[in-house]
């Protein structure tokens, strides 16, 4: 397939979308990104892009932190993305990666001022990022989450993900699937690239936004669905490490992870050691919602006609 990328203001073949080794973002990690999922809905020949608007609202908001002006409106970014998906015409679940980045190649130095900002977006086939059926075995990482006063975790800054790379690599070398990362104070923050929910006494608990987490769009989705569809409230608060060991259920959530139950933490079983009933209910509901099968949440889904539907 001749995959296309939106790059430097136009749709170009993937092989032509290249940046210089002197690019500011390559040298210093000065990029922002979003991860967006498009779900293949074969009965409608559609890709259902989940919460496209909210992802770009977050990207534009975070651009203000990094002195970036992309030169596109929210609607233009959404339209570019829909057109790219149509042009690539996938008949599979698709990952969409928009990036805002500092593009200067003539300057040495890492100041964000007086540097050119650019935007690109590409797509890629993506199934399950982690095993969402088996139940994950995770550890509490020795690496601590970045503080907001260092590199703000609420912004998906490319350079900040070295923190996650170190944590997940050490976890997997030790035989775990992934890791939970703590703050400098020793309280629970999140996973290496996903938010965390705990089930305790029939209630959802998730670390507060003050715990150096990404303010996840999937996190918001889960809290909303749990309240409106299952009658389960979510408490946002400080979570201590030992609460992970006494939780009834745990699960990660995020664009990549989707809803990924955790059945073991630091060699201790979570609850019964099997995927819990609330995690399973939320997971099943989530997958119906993202594919546009629950009418009350159709506003979260952007349908894009592909395949046979696209050429009618």
Please characterize this protein's 3D structure:
The longest helix has 15 residues, at 74-88. The chain has helices spanning 24-28, 52-65, 74-88, 161-173, 217-230, 241-246, 277-290; strands spanning 4-7, 10-13, 31-33, 36-41, 46-50, 94-102, 117-125, 136-144, 178-182, 188-191, 195-200, 203-207, 234-237, 249-254, 258-265, 268-269, 301-305. The two termini are 21 Å apart. The strands form two sheets. Strands 8, 9, 10, 11, 12, 13, 14, 15 and 16 form a nine-stranded mixed β-sheet that branches. The protein is globular, with a radius of gyration of 20 Å. With 312 residues, it is of the alpha+beta class. A hairpin with a 4-residue loop joins strand 4 (36-41) and strand 5 (46-50). It is built from seven helices and 17 strands.
Q: What keywords describe this structure?
A:
312 residues; alpha+beta; nine-stranded mixed β-sheet; eight-stranded antiparallel β-sheet
């Amino acid at each position: 397939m001749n995959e296309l990328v939106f790059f430097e203001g136009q749709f170009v073949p993937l092989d032509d979308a290249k940046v210089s080794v002197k690019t500011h973002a390559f040298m210093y990690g000065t990029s922002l990104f979003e991860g967006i999922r498009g779900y293949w809905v074969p009965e409608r020949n559609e890709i259902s892009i989940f919460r496209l608007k909210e992802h770009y609202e977050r990207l534009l908001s975070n651009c203000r932190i990094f002195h970036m002006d992309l030169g596109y409106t929210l609607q233009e970014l959404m339209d570019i993305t829909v057109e790219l998906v149509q042009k690539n015409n996938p008949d599979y679940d698709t990952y969409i990666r928009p990036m805002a980045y500092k593009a200067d190649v003539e300057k040495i130095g890492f100041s964000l001022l007086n540097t050119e900002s650019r935007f690109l977006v590409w797509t890629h086939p993506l199934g399950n990022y982690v095993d969402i059926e088996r139940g994950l075995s995770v550890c509490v990482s020795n690496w601590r989450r970045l503080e907001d006063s260092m590199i703000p975790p609420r912004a998906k800054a490319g350079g900040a993900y070295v923190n996650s790379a170190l944590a997940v690599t050490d976890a997997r070398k030790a035989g775990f699937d992934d890791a939970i990362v703590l703050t400098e104070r020793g309280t629970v923050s999140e996973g290496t690239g996903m938010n965390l929910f705990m089930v305790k006494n029939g209630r959802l608990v998730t670390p507060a936004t003050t715990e150096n987490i990404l303010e996840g769009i999937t996190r918001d989705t889960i809290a909303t669905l749990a309240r409106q569809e299952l009658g389960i409230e979510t408490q946002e608060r400080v979570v201590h490490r030992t609460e992970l060991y006494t939780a009834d259920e745990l699960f990660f959530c995020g664009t990549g992870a989707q809803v990924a139950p955790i059945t073991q933490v630091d060699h201790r079983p979570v609850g019964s050691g099997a995927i819990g009933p609330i995690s399973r209910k939320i997971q099943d509901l989530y997958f119906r919602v993202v594919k546009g099968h629950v009418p009350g949440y159709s506003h979260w889904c952007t349908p894009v006609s592909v395949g046979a539907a696209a050429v009618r």
